Amino acid sequence: MIYSKNDNIPATYEQLYLRAVNYLSRREYSKFELKNKLSKYSDDNELILQVLDELSQKNWQSDERFSESLINSKSSKYGNLRLIETLRQKGVDSETAQKYLLNDDEEIANAKQVLQKKFGTADYPISAQLKQKCYRFLSYRGFSYEIIQKAMRQWVENQED
C-alpha cells in the first residue's frame, strides 16, 4: 500500500516507483508534472528525483514524447503560441516544444478550420465587427497575428466564392 503525507509515514522508493508507473500507464506526463504528483507522497525530493531518473533511463517517461503527444492532440484547436505556453506551464523547455510544433502552412489550415467551425461558411458579407471578433477568437486560441491574417484572408476569399 502506498501511504500519503497525511498518514505521516513517508513512502519508500518502491512505493513511489509503483505510483509513478501507475500514473504513466494511463497517459504521458512531463517530468515536472510527475514530480508534483509524487511530492504528495514523500517529502524526500532526492528520492523522487531518483525515481524520475530511473523512469527516464528506461524511457518510460519522456518530455519529448509528452510534448509530441500534447501537440498532436491539441494542435487542431490551438495555435503554436498557446501550445508553447501550455508546455512551459507543464515544465517542458522551449527547445523540446519547438521540435514538434506545426509549420506555418499547417497552422494556417488549422486556424481556417477553427474559423469555419465557429463562424460557418454562410454567404454573407464579412463585416468589420465580425472580422474583429474572429481576430480576438483566434488570438485567444493562441494563433499569431501573421497566421490570423493569412487564415482570415483565405476564409474571406472562400466566403466570397
What does the radius of gyration come to? Answer: 21 Å
The tally of beta strands, per DSSP, is: 0
SSE arrangement, N to C: HHHHHHHHH
Structural class: mainly alpha
- Whole-Å distance between the termini? 65 Å
Helical proportion? 55-70%
Number of helices: 9
Q: pLDDT average, as an integer?
A: 88
Percent of residues in beta strands: under 5%
Task: Characterize the main sheet.
Answer: none
Whole-number tally of structural domains = 3
CATH architecture of the largest domain: Orthogonal Bundle
The CATH class of the largest domain is Mainly Alpha
* Overall 3D form: elongated
Name the poorly predicted regions. none
Provide the CATH topology of the largest domain. Answer: Arc Repressor Mutant, subunit A
Give your account of this protein's structure:
- By secondary structure, this protein is mainly alpha-helical.
- It folds into three domains: 5-61, Arc Repressor Mutant, subunit A; 64-100, no CATH class; 104-160, Arc Repressor Mutant, subunit A (Orthogonal Bundle), CATH 1.10.10.
- Helix content is 68%, strand content 0%.
- It contains nine helices and no strands.
- It has helices at 13-26, 31-38, 45-57, 63-74, 80-89, 94-100, 104-119, 128-140, 145-160.
- The longest helix is centred in the last third of the chain and has 16 residues, at 104-119.
- The radius of gyration is 21 Å and the shape is elongated.
What's the topology here?
Layout: H1 13-26, H2 31-38, H3 45-57, H4 63-74, H5 80-89, H6 94-100, H7 104-119, H8 128-140, H9 145-160
Helix pairs in contact: 1-3, 4-6, 7-9, 8-9
